[in-house]
Known about the structure:
By secondary structure, the chain is an alpha/beta fold. It is about 35% helix and about 20% strand. Helix 11 links the parallel strand 11 and strand 12. The longest helix has about 30 residues, at about 75-105.
Amino acid sequence: MKKVKPVIINREISWLHFNERVLQEAMDRAMPLIERLKFLGIFSNNRDEFFRVRVGTLNRLLHITKKEDKLKFEPRRLLSQILKIVTEQEKIFNQTYDELVEELAKENILLINETQLSREQGRYIKKYFQDNVRAQLFPIMLNNVNRKTSLIDKMLYLIVDLQSTHPGIRADCALIKVPTDSLSRFVILPEKGQKYYIILLDDVIRYCLSDIFSVFGYDRFSAYTIKFTRDAELDIDNDISKSFLEILSESVKQRQKGTTVRFVYEETIPQDLLDKVTERLGITEKDNMRKGGRYHNFKDFMEFPHIGPPHLYYAPTPPLPQKDLPYNTSILKRIREKDIMLNFPYHNFQYLIDLLREASIDPQVTSIRMTFYRVAQDSSVMNALINAARNGKEVSVFLEIQARFDEEANIYWSNKLKSEGVKIIPTIPGFKVHCKLILIKRMEEGREIGYSNISTGNYNESTAKVFSDISLLTADQKIARDVSEVFRLFESRYNPPSFERLIVSPFHIRDFFIRLLNREIRNKHNGKDAWAIVKLNSVVDETITLKLYQASRAGVRLRMLVRGICVLVPGIPGLSDNIEVFSIVDKFLEHSRIFVFCNNNDPLYFIASADWMPRNFDHRIEVVCPVFDKAIQRDLMNILEIQLHDNCKARIISADMPNRYKMDGSHPQVRSQIEIYNYYKNQLNGKTTS
């Protein structure tokens, strides 16, 4: 067979394909209408973060001139490709938004602007403005703005053109921040004849500009939207006189003054006014200036008001009880009897809070250790740990303050926990702790027993409502010892321990998966069954990708569920024709990492916090955990098979059409997230699952 050269897709282009799948959800007419609108918000928020992080990094690479800096791509050309794709997606986005506004009107939900207000609605808005908005506005006259003015990243601004019919009053301009950080973007007007009317906060301000500026003699106003997206990479200095917490806190503040990577402006703005604004702010073509429509920051549409009839929303799927955790039963006792798997959001996250609450008051529990990456704003998990410390337990927490965009919240909780007597394990500069672990130690019959939780997702009760994650509860003492060793690693620094059950990066994870794939290759060569099923968020690591190609050429069947970036291209004859890759984007965000390897028909099962990316293998502390319980293995395989048979929300990842829906009219419709919900529901009702 002729050897085919391996194909590696650029990760940024693959990410844009992923975000297109999010946009497809907004375009899907089978979806509930307001849920489609929220997907526009998710798409917009994703794109903002992409520019803040990935485009910001590419802009930095443009300034690298050293010959020894060898890149596998040309940053300027890649930026050009990105902007071309983004522009095409923006056209589809705007068309979809216009369609959704029309569809909402058919449902008697009308989005109106300040020119469409009736007299009665105008009076209501004037009063709303005086009561709620005016005190939040602090205009800056454009002539007072300089390039060092800290205009806030990701916030909306109105540039207001001020004119007067009175002689002697010169025209001027002002900047107003739209205060969506303290007020809802959406103002619901009084109903009229069973119709809902909604006006955006920016249009409320436009309608009331005279209330701000008429005192200065201006009587003609026009306002246009502008928005910045800044480079979000943190510059961390190496001042040894400061703690790392102090250094990171200062770096987070500096983020607001990062380089502009995107400047969006309303396309109707007069050119002379645009020139004034860009000159005062030091914005150039290099900053990815882009004209757009009247409205920006569609991320706010993720919080669109809950109005209208039920058919505009997803059917409710309230979290289900876990069949092995009866109400009013000791969770620790149940874990001692058998391993238990929670699958959020199908199961209730409250189980983990209840576990921590039980441990905090159990007189035989001696200590609780826990890692955090992203924490809920009002966290019951944190409050449970504080309560444990107050009850005299030894509580230790590793809280990753370097979690991008959550640094401030994590710094807050770090200080709060410390003040309550919780031991905060210092962060590790250069490494992020991304693993999700709980270790509870309890005295039983004269010896200390460890209870562990290993999760694929964050201990965050807010995101657990929408992120699909696996969480394993076990009293396996070998796993408990390994989890204890991970915590010892945090504190001993750079002194890697040995592990019996867990596989831990940055030491072993890449090599571990390569060994498993090599075993499948050998088994195939020896005429044995050989296959693997992999579910994760991203496949970026080139070494792993090349090994997957090698396995495919050897005849190993690889079925993969990859939600986000995938640099591998399946289905290429002679290279990847034994690889299938599907991506599911639906109501819940697929976030769990699950791995099953045939192992000569004695399958090995694993869950993990890590994706197949260089950062997860080399620059983060991650954990892969084996799953031994046969009932849990069966559940994991059933869940994976349900998702692999999804023909409603699954897309086929390929070279030519990377987002083609996997639809099969010859079989019944399978929408995997609904099927998984029903799977757990059937378990509760005593129905057999296989």
